[in-house]
Amino acid sequence: MPADHKNSHTKTKRVPRQTTTKPSYYEGESSDGDQTQDHDIIMQDTNLDGGDSQFVVEALKTEEDEAIKGIKPEREEAESSTANSRAQPDHDTLKTRQSIQLRLHALEAEFKKKRDEIFNEQLKHIDEEIKAVREGTHPEFEERLQQIIDKREQMLEQHALALNYQRQCIQKEYEAETLRLEESYQAQRQAVNDRLIAEVEERKRKLSEDYESYDIHNDVAMDGTMRTHTQRRLRTRTTQEVEVKVKKQKMSGPSVTYKLCDSDINEDLAEIGLSGFANRKSAASCNKKK
Fold it and tell me: What is the rounded distance in angstroms from the CA atom of residue 255 to the CA atom of residue 80?
């Protein structure tokens, strides 16, 4: 059928070419480009037949009508065949589409399954990591914890060194301050000792002077009315006379009449602060009485 249809088409194409070219040729329009081989054949036939152009044109028209009448059923058959051929690919396309859709559904289901598996696997892995972190066995947690421990130990070591340094500084300051206080104490102690010794020596000297100036036995032995009278002279006094006068005045004491016993005297002297002096005097008096 397709070959017949093709031949019919070629015939229809050739017939119009003959109808279009024949009238132009008989009307006197001669052109080299419009003349074809079919025209030459037709002209040769007409020349051989005696040049009856009208008969030739009518013959061509009848042939064209017959060709057109023969083409119509062929065209209908071709259209029906093309419609059948189009209907058949539509069915194949539908099957192909259905198969593709089935494959897409299968791929989508497989994708969802894989997605769920990956999600569950990752979720399980995350849960395991959380559990490891809480238990303290996670490798990353251990690594970070080790870094923190190292930093802590380093800081503790630095603080220990700083503490030892401060202790040494404080110990040195303490020792220096203790030494300074000890030196100050020794100096003050020596000063107090020297001052007390000086005071005691001064008291001893005063006591010795008092002993020499207030000798009780000498006062008793001396006459109460006895006075030393210096001679008044008009001449210049020498140093010897002045010394003798001073000595006489120093040795002289007040005339005291003792009417008290030794105990009363000692009590009075104790109240005055001369108890030791009174004891010595009483002892001396006792010895002399013996």
Answer: 189
The domain locations on the chain are 2-126, 138-213, 216-224+236-257, 260-290
Is pTM beyond 0.70? Reply is no
Q: Could you read off the pLDDT of 1-44 as tens digits, one per residue?
A: 444 444 444 444 444 444 444 444 444 444 444 444 444 444 44
